[in-house]
Amino acid sequence: MFATMEAARLEALHLTQDPVTGLKAIIAIHNTRLGPALGGCRYLVYPDEQSAIRDAVRLAQGMSYKAALAGVAQGGGKAVIIRPVHVANRGALFEAFGRFIETLNGRYITAVDSGSSSADMDCIAQHTQHVTSTTSEGDPSPHTAMGVFAGIRATALARLGGDDLQGLRVAVQGLGHVGYALAEQLHAAGVELLVSDLDRGRVQLAVEQLGAHPVASDALLATPCDILAPCGLGGVLNSETVGQLRCSAVAGAANNQLASADIADTLQARGILYAPDYVINSGGLIYVALRHRGESPAAITTHMARISQRLTEIYGHAQADKRSPARVADALAERLLYG
Ligand code: NAD
User: Fold this and answer.
1) Is 164 close to ligand 1, i.e. is its CB under 6 Å away?
2) For ligand 1, what atom is nearest to the CA of residue 230?
3) What is the DSSP letter of 249?
4) Are residues 101 and 183 in the same domain?
5) 116 and 222: one domain?
6) How much is the pLDDT for 40?
7) What is the pLDDT of residues 30-61, one digit of tens each?
8) Do 310 and 187 share a structural domain?
9) CB of 179 shorter than 6 A to ligand 1
10) 105 CA distance to ligand 1 centroid (A)?
11) What range defines the domain where residue 22 resides?
12) What is the Å distance from ligand 1's center to 156 Cα?
């Protein structure tokens, strides 16, 4: 376990179990140099405890990088609750998790993530104030979508020479909370939308409401377009798919889009500009962090503008150094985290 922590440069790993509610939870605190660790709480079934711990550690590390480049004065952390097969009382389980967070005295702040909801955050909030994205604070997804939209404009400017999206072809993979909101904004900007989702109902909605062209899920990555926006699951860009892409840039919301770091170099070699995922999708983090601190909506909107500024800065360095934007982003984040 210490080897895993050392490899990820993880500060602390906290575990708890509660036989009364069935809670088995992990909180990974990656780096608190820039502020208390902030990151979502996953509530998922895992094949074994080791994979749950690995997930928490990997995701906490990602949150440190995201927070550092978003400039939100937060560290990176993540929680994983191993979802039991049978839950007698979900509310009681999340309340027990709230008591666990409280023992960390504010070193970790939680939020909604895969499998957890704002209602779960309300249960946590009964026992600690170190929680965001409760029902009163709302879903961060629209803010993530707003940031991705601004990031797509910055990407179009860098790669296509202008940030007017009118008439561009953008392929959106995944029309969930973020992807659909993004597609709405792209449609309003005059973009020709190509869309796919495993859920046919979501695709149908986009066809009817946004005039989108439906594309089969297994064909979307290879569809000719100006910009590809992966907004479904992570790992979509791998050694097999990267050769199929027929776009000028990749800029989307999904976390961990690159199956491995070297895929960024392949994209670079192919002349495809890649918007580092944790930079372009940081709008939700900015929203929850600033909202938790009591900042005004105007201050949040102002801070959101940093996403496109940061991307433009990264693209500038990448072009000057002939390196992938992903490598540049990692180096910038590591300078902030480790000096
Ligand atoms: P979501 O679960 O609401 O939506 C994901 C959608 O993608 C679903 O409709 C699903 O059917 C579809 N999908 C999955 N695999 C697909 C495939 N191969 N082809 C086509 N469609 C596919 O999730 P979300 O909240 O919209 O998040 C989307 C991505 O953005 C995730 O990777 C998430 O980690 C990341 N992200 C989300 C936020 C946020 O604020 N919600 C913030 C940062 C990053």
Assistant:
1) no
2) 29
3) E
4) no
5) no
6) 95
7) 999 999 999 999 999 999 999 999 999 999 99
8) yes
9) yes
10) 32
11) 2-62+75-124
12) 22
- CATH code where residue 7 lies: 3.40.50.10860
pLDDT of residue 10: 98
Q: Does residue 291 contact residue 69 with C-beta atoms inside 8 Å?
A: no
pTM for the model stands at 0.95
Q: Is the CB of 255 under 6 A from ligand 1?
A: yes
Atom of ligand 1 nearest to the CA of 236: 18
Whether residues 223 and 304 share a domain: the answer is yes
Count of structural domains, the chain? 2
Regions in the chain scoring below 50 on pLDDT: none
Same domain membership, residue 327 and residue 198? yes
Question: Which protein residue has the closest C-alpha to ligand 1 atom 25?
Answer: 177
Residue nearest to atom 2 of ligand 1 (CA): 176
Task: Tell which residue, 61, 69, 72, 67, has the closest CA to residue 28.
Answer: 61
- In 197-270, at which residue ranges do the beta strands (DSSP E only) sit? 213-214, 227-230, 249-250
CATH at 242: 3.40.50.720
Note if 24 is an active site residue.
no
Give the separation between CA 300 and CA 22, rounded to whole angstroms. 38
Q: What share of the chain is helix, strand, coil (3-state, %, to 5)?
A: 45, 15, 35
